[in-house]
Amino acid sequence: MRSRISSVNPTAPSVRRRRRPEEAEAEILDAARALLTERSAQDVTVSAVMATTTLSRKSFYVYFADRHALLRRLLEPLAAERDAIIEPVYAAESLMVAGPPAMQGLARFYARHGRLLRALAQSSAQDEDTRRAWLGFMEPVVQAHVKVLRTEIAAGRVQGLDPEPTMRALIAMNLQYFFDELVDSDQPDVGGVAATLVTIWGRTLYASSGGSGPGSRGGTRR
């Protein structure tokens, strides 16, 4: 007697299993993170993300209001990790004390997460959702550093600089140098990258006030 042949299409997707909400959200975030390291952010649409998950497209809106919310959520844990590294800078008496160890921590941070962050930074100029998410990630750090520099100026340790454009320029420099030197490198020179940036920050901020040397002073980048 001939055996019965199943009518199930062997090429059809497997039946989606129910899972805890946190598992489903994590799957969407992981899918988006992977795609962002392979494509421009504007190509990482809701449909593209959900197509690489085991969830239906409509499931996306259970966890995220829109694409911008997804990108913002991807950046939240990275912002928390970064902020923990640079928090001592905001509380220190001077940048010359807290800057160098913070820069070391930031270099290690970008060596770990730089590929995703570079993808978002590069796409922020072409894609509005990414621009808004990236601005939310970067701007608090810029403003916090501006406040620190104003304190340094008020204490007489820094002279002749306009705080906001100075900090924007230094932070932008850090960001690009981290991307250029640490991302996709088999053996990133974290210490060398950090030392170079500390030197530049020290000479930029303190040279006009007779600082004791670039290696003893420095700032951070986001």
Number of domains: 2
Largest sheet: none
List how many beta strands DSSP finds: 0
CATH topology of the largest domain: Tetracycline Repressor, domain 2
Report the radius of gyration as a whole number of Å. Answer: 23 Å
Tell me roughly what share of residues is in helical segments.
Answer: 55-70%
Specify the CATH architecture of the largest domain.
Orthogonal Bundle
Please give the CATH class of the largest domain.
Answer: Mainly Alpha
What name goes with the CATH superfamily of the largest domain? Tetracycline Repressor, domain 2
Give the CA-CA distance, first to last residue: 72 Å
SSE string, helices as H and strands as E: HHHHHHHH
Mean pLDDT: 86
Unreliable spans are 1-15, 212-222
Number of helices: 8
Backbone structural class: mainly alpha
The geometry reads as elongated
Outline of the structure:
With 222 residues, the chain is mostly helical. It has 2 domains: 21-63; 67-216, Tetracycline Repressor, domain 2 (Orthogonal Bundle). It has helices at residues 21-36, 46-51, 60-63, 67-91, 95-123, 128-154, 163-182, 190-206.
Structural account:
With 222 residues, the chain is mainly α. The chain folds into 2 domains: 43 residues; 150 residues, Tetracycline Repressor, domain 2, CATH 1.10.357. The longest helix is centred in the middle third of the chain and has 29 residues. The chain is elongated, with a radius of gyration of 23 Å. The N and C termini lie far apart (72 Å).
What brief labels describe this structure?
single chain; disordered N terminus; mainly alpha; 222 residues; disordered C terminus; elongated
